[in-house]
Structure formats: C-alpha cells, structure tokens
C-alpha cells in the first residue's frame, strides 16, 4: 500500500505519495525549505525527525547534502578517535553499522518532489526521466529523498556505461539495486579453477548481474541455468547475457534457490556477512544468520549430478569481524554431506585494504576470498 505525506506551504495544503527503495518510513513532519537553509540547521531539523522538502535551486540542494555529509563524517571521526577501541572487532563493526544507519537516516531527510513524467520543478534541475523510468513505476507525483534520487541517477550512468570485466571479455551493466561486480578477485577464482570432467551443465544460484554465468559460458559450458529471487536481478542478468551473446547457452529463472534437475557444476557467491541488510543493494552483502549460505549447502547434494561439483565463493571477512566462528563453515559443509576437494584463495585488492584510518582495517587486511570446490561425500 502506498503511503502519502502532506505539508503546508503558506496557507496551501499539499499531498503526495511517499517512496523509499530502502523501505524507510515517511517523516512524520514535512518542512518546506530553500536555499536559505544552512547545513547546521538542516541537521538539527533532521535530528528532530523533520523531512526537508526542497523548494530552492536543485544544485544548491546537492551542495547542502554534501555539507551535511562533511559535518557528519567529521563528527564521526572525532568520536571514533576518542572512544572506539579496536580490540573487540565485533563491537567495532556493530558500531560502524549503527553509525552508517544513523548517517543514512539523517541524510535521507532532504527530500525532492517528482512531478508526473519524473519532472523536477526546481531551478537548474537535470532531466532525470530516463533514470527514474528504469526504477520507478509512478504516474502521479511522489516524493523521494535526494540521496536516493542521486543513487538512481548514478546507477543509470553505471548501467549505460557498464563495468569492464576482463574475465567476460567485455562489460557488465548493473541495474539499480543489483550489486556491481567491482570486486574482481572472486571472478579470477571462478575463471581459473579447474572444471569438473565432462562438465556440460551448470547452475548459478543468486546470479545478480549474470557475470558468473557469462564466465562459465565463456569457458565452454553449454547449458547453464541462472536463478535469482529479485526481479531486477533477473532482468539485469538477461540483459547482460544477451549483450554478451550467450542467450542460447544461459537461461535465467526467478526463484529463491535451485532450478529443477541436476547439474555437473553449481556455483554460488552468497552474501558474505551474516547481518541484517538495510537497503535492496545490501542484500548482496548481508545475509541474516547466514541463511542463504546454509540453504545452498544443505540443498546442494540433491542437485549435483553423479560426479558433479559445487563451487562456493565466499570471503572470510565475517570470521575476522567475529561474526562467524572459523569452524562454522567447515562444519556446515560436513553436516550437508559434502566434502572439500580443494580450496583456492586470493587476497582482495580494493582500496580499503590499504586504508589504515578505516575502523575495520585490521579485518580487511587479513581478509581472504576463497573458492571451495565441494562434492558429495562417498
């Protein structure tokens, strides 16, 4: 059911639909604001729970949001420098997540109204019709946070330009809300691990952009079924697969886990951290209680062909953050009736590995991404 918000501008009452991709509830109070509002005033109102409906110059709204970000980040840096002990990494992680959620809530209070046709009736407002049409399905006016709108615009550019992925021989085009394959080390593992003998069929569980299926097709597997429970991911995977020219080799289905039948190879790159996601994009990172990881392992034996293999691609960052015990994953593998044929490791290369100011630097520096080659116990 759509929610509505209302506000008063002078003596005139207004009403519009409210939308949040993260499922955030609408602010209880809406305050029309313009270019005279300072970042400090904006943060004070946001802390009080007021939504700031922007009615000034669009570019000034972006500058206000950036100023709010700088103030929040500076405050967080001072607080962390004084109070955070890095000895208990799990507490540090929980504090980090709490801070990120509070930051997102406050910055999400700067609001933009989108009129029918995704028009923004503000000075110097860009044309966002194409970007919004790829995400929203509204015909009436509605209100979103400026931060979300900027994410939609940024995703439109990512989707249009694509992300170069050498292992596919081309580019992958992530859709809004579908995790982009920016961490290339796990793709290298998939591209280099030895395939099972007589590998004719494969399943790709939780396909996302479809990048793993494309790499497997490029390696010569003729029949691949990719699955994902998210409609946008299914659409994204189908687009990328067709763009790569593998629509005859790969079929994409919308379902939670496994397709019907068995396969010679089943791959899965589940979310790496057992924590609650706070946005659609975070579902690719956070897996509450490791439910997808456990579900994949428990159901894997029933879907492997006689000499088939399951490839689990996952980071050990959760262990370094104290979110999962190091013996948990090997134990779940054994409980599922599986045996480890081999494990292939690679170190991550992203920028945060070298960022010593990051509260989670010690865990990130120690992180290893691993491809587990699994088979049914004999």
Keyword list:
single chain; Rossmann fold; 2 domains; seven-stranded mixed beta sheet; 15 strands
3D architecture notes:
With 378 residues, the chain is an alpha/beta fold. The chain has 2 domains: 3-157, no CATH class; 165-376, Vaccinia Virus protein VP39 (Rossmann fold, 3-Layer(aba) Sandwich), CATH 3.40.50.150. Helices cover 35% and strands 24% of the residues. It has helices at residues 39-47, 58-83, 89-107, 129-133, 146-161, 185-192, 211-218, 231-244, 291-299, 317-320, 328-335, 361-366; strands at 3-9, 12-18, 29-33, 50-54, 110-114, 142-145, 163-165, 170-172, 201-205, 223-228, 250-254, 263-268, 304-315, 338-346, 369-376. The chain has a 7-stranded mixed sheet with strand order 11-10-9-12-13-15-14, with helices on both faces. α1 (39-47) packs across α2 (58-83). It is globular and about 75 Å long. The N and C termini lie far apart (51 Å). The mean pLDDT is 92.
Ranges with pLDDT <50 over ≥5 residues?
none
Number of strands: 15
Strand order of the largest sheet: 11-10-9-12-13-15-14
What is the domain total for the residues? Answer: 2
Under the CATH scheme, the architecture of the largest domain is 3-Layer(aba) Sandwich
Largest beta-sheet details: 7 strands, mixed
Shape: globular
Helix content: 25-40%
By CATH's scheme, which homologous superfamily of the largest domain applies? Answer: Vaccinia Virus protein VP39
Question: How many H/I helices?
Answer: 12
Report the average pLDDT across residues: 92
Return the string of H and E elements. Answer: EEEHEHHEHEHEEHEHEHEEHEHHEHE
Radius of gyration over all CA atoms, rounded: 23 Å
Class derived from helix and strand content: alpha/beta
Q: What's the level 1 CATH class of the largest domain?
A: Alpha Beta
Provide the β-strand percentage band. 15-25%
CATH topology of the largest domain: Rossmann fold
Distance between the termini: 51 Å
Keywords: Methyltransferase, Ribonucleoprotein, Ribosomal protein, Transferase
Protein name: 50S ribosomal protein L11 methyltransferase
Organism: Advenella mandrilli
GO molecular function, one term: methyltransferase activity
């Amino acid at each position: 059911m759509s929610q509505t918000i209302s506000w008063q501008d002078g003596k005139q009452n207004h009403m519009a639909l409210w939308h949040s991709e993260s499922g955030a509830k609408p602010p209880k109070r809406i305050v029309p604001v313009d270019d005279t509002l300072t970042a400090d005033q904006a943060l004070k109102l946001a802390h009080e729970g007021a939504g700031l409906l922007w009615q000034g110059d669009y570019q000034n709204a972006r500058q206000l949001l950036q100023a709010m970000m700088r103030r929040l980040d500076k405050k967080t840096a001072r607080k962390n420098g004084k109070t955070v002990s890095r000895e208990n990494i799990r507490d540090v992680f929980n504090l980090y997540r709490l801070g990120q959620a509070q930051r997102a809530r406050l910055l999400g209070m700067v609001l933009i109204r989108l009129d029918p046709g995704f028009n923004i009736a503000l000075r110097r407002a860009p044309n966002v019709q194409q970007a919004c049409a790829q995400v929203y399905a509204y015909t009436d006016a509605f209100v979103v946070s400026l931060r979300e709108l900027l994410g939609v615009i940024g995703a439109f550019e990512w989707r249009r330009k694509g992300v170069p992925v050498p292992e596919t021989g081309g580019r992958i085009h992530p859709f809004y809300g579908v995790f982009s394959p920016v961490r290339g080390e796990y793709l290298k593992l998939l591209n280099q691990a030895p395939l099972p003998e007589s590998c004719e069929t494969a399943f790709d569980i939780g396909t996302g952009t479809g990048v793993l299926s494309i790499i497997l097709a490029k390696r010569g597997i003729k029949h691949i079924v990719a699955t994902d429970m998210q409609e946008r991911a299914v659409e994204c995977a189908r687009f990328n697969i067709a763009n790569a020219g593998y629509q005859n080799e790969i079929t994409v289905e919308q379902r939670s886990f496994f397709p019907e039948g068995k396969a010679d190879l089943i791959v899965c790159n589940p979310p790496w951290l057992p924590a609650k996601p706070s946005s659609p994009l975070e579902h690719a990172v956070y897996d509450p209680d490791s439910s997808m990881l456990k579900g994949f392992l428990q159901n894997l034996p029933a879907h492997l062909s006689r000499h088939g293999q399951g490839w689990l691609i996952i980071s050990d960052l959760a262990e370094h953050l104290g979110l999962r015990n190091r013996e948990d994953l090997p134990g779940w593998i054994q409980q599922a009736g599986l045996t480890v044929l081999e494990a292939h490791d690679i170190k991550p290369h992203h920028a945060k590995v070298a960022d010593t100011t990051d509260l989670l630097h010690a865990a990130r520096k120690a992180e290893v991404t691993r491809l587990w080659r699994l088979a049914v116990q004999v």
